[in-house]
Amino acid sequence: MSVRSPNWVPYLQVAPLSLVFLVFLVVPILTIVVVSFFDYDSTRLLPDFVLTNYEELLSSSITWRTYGQTLEFALITWICTLLIGFTVAYFLAFHVRSTAWQTVLFLVCTIPFWTSNIIRMISWIPFLGRNGVLNTALQGAGVIDRPLEFLLFSDFAVVLAYVHLYTLFMVVPIFNSMMRIDRSLIEAAHDAGASGRQILWNVIIPLCKPGIAIGSIFVVTIVMGDFVTVRLMSGGQSASVGLMMINAMSLLQYPAAAANAVVLLILVLMTVALMIRVVDIRREL
Amino acid sequence: MRDGRRRPLSFYLLAGFFGLFVLFLYGPTSTIVLLSFQGPSGGLTFPMNGVSLHWFGNLFERQMVGDFAGSLQRSMLLGIVTMLVTVAVSFAAGLAFRKRFRGATLVFYLAIASLIVPSILISLGIGLLFRVLEWDPAWYSSAFGAHLSWTLPFGLLIMFAVFNRFSPSYEEAARDLGASPWQTIRHVVLPIVLPSLIGVGLFGFTLSYDEFARSLYTSGTFNTLPLEIYGMTTNVTTPVLYALGTVTTGVSFLVIALSLAAFVVIRRRRARFGSDAGRGV
Q: CA spacing 20 to 30 A to B200: which of A14, A220, A255, B53?
């Protein structure tokens, strides 16, 4: 486009970005892959090429159970955030009539996002705890006669925190897709006699696929790599792949952690590849 | 959509759902803001035992909690530098992507990869890299790079969105009037995209200020604020934790308010000085 600037200009412009990705993404990932084949003793890394880290990892039933639990968390969180996120985005895009109101309501949803995630997690403690707001209210109302114990420090709390933290990542891209839908398509479907449900299912949802895919990728990859939420919200009772890596790291078993990281990376990339097959994301940007 | 008609029942149902969602988002957070004003003998849950600023005072006593003031300072500084670098680098890269160049697709996919590879892997990788090279990780070197690997993809995607809507005719006009490429960027492109650059900066700051996983193995001896908060969640059981939450939330809001103010000022100036079309010279 810029006729006068010489050919090397774009390379110069993109150089800093590429350099950051090279040094702080590509090289570290390669380091993980290399270290995952290292040997180690209680104090040192021993450069070598051994497969023991992978053998130990993949032959342990704890590994499989932990991966299973991580995928389960990811799946449940995905379903919850998708249902809630889609409904919220649908309301904002199709039922709120003025742009001003859309902006205001949208801001209302995004503001909590600016608070630290960890703070937002611990904010559930006074709410769900044994003597928390919810238990007190339920007991006061006579619904239960002793505090519900499963609310805090449980799988329930973990998923609740995920939904609380990441539903917005679904709302934003789905809302974006919905706003691009040509309103005359919906009018046309309406005129052709489609019911509201048919319009939703045959017109809106197919056209929202890119947004759904982008939101899903965000939520699923974040949940699969998470360890903070699992540790804090389950009170140490649940495990996740991320947590397993952290524990290996704290025992200075770096190669073991690295092997785990490689397996997790492969799993994440496979999941994302699967989602991208459904929709060409690059075209949507 | 169908203006002038009565709102259907589904509107009220969905509005109710939206209301519940907002309550869900705000409820817990506002609880801890409230509880951070507990009296000195108050605990982690209701009821409130009086109202005081006791726990905020407690926050700044070094011996009670870790190094709150120091970590806040480091996180602010890191956030600000990350913000500035993110804006500059994303802007430059955004300009590059408007033209064709070899490797554009590769760089794009690297950016996407940087978003989807779990943060803990990046943290682990950089930590291991520094260990293998026998360098000491520090918040201003390795953690800074780790944060950039998180903020730059967002910056780049925002720049894509901006330049997709940017009409090249402004630049053509500038060129026809004899502006050099540099002058075109400085006096035409930059002022037009400035509000979006503020957005990129805001994203950069808050993402960095908040980043926990990518700081874990990269920040070295001195904690950043999220690490400090995390440390506190595992060993502090007093409302000082909530005071910390309230203060950091306050800082986030301050940053947003300042950015919005900058945004408004730019728009006002533009409304006043922006166009001299039709006024003659």
A: A220
